[in-house]
Amino acid sequence: KGGKVGLFGGAGVGKTVNMMELIRNIAIEHSGYSVFAGVGERTREGNDFYHEMKESNVLDKVSLVYGQMNEPPGNRLRVALTGLTMAEYFRDEGRDVLLFIDNIYRYTLAGTEVSALLGRMPSAVGYQPTIASEMGALQERITSTKKGSITSIQAVYVPADDLTDPAPATTFAHLDATVVLSRQVAELGIYPAVDPLDS
Fold first, then answer.
1. Which of 164, 40, 10, 36 is closest to 111 using CA atoms?
2. If we measure between CA atoms, which residue out of 162, 180, 167, 20 comes closest to residue 105?
3. Which residues are known catalytic residues?
4. Residue 179 sits in which domain range?
């Protein structure tokens, strides 16, 4: 309760599916409330997610906010902060709320695009020079109070399955726990494809 968990993995290893299952189980088994921020989601994924929540009868227990891939980078950069503001509202009402961010990597990419538009010189691997401060501005607001708590579960795309890439590496510093979803485990047909040694 009140912690931050990262679901790390490359494309197609089950990050979003794990989030959907967690939202459904929390809503049905524990009557818990969730906020889902879809950062840079494909329109199809956002649509599928909505219908999955509707079919599971949990739409009354979840708030969804999207900044989709086809939107300007400023919109995509702000959607994670919008989801966080919604979670803070519920926390300040005295609730214990779950904040799901999918995908924190796309939050970083949106920041990279905004940085390029502003004419800033890129840093390591082409990311914005403000990557650490932007990530900190988001992550440090995910806090609990005496009245309520925000527990955050964040999907983190790992480019080329490289955990040392600056985007996932910057995220690591802010998390209380990490779960690494492995392509090798997924290829064996084992889901969730958790790698217990890397996690």
1. 40
2. 167
3. 15, 41-42
4. 4-187
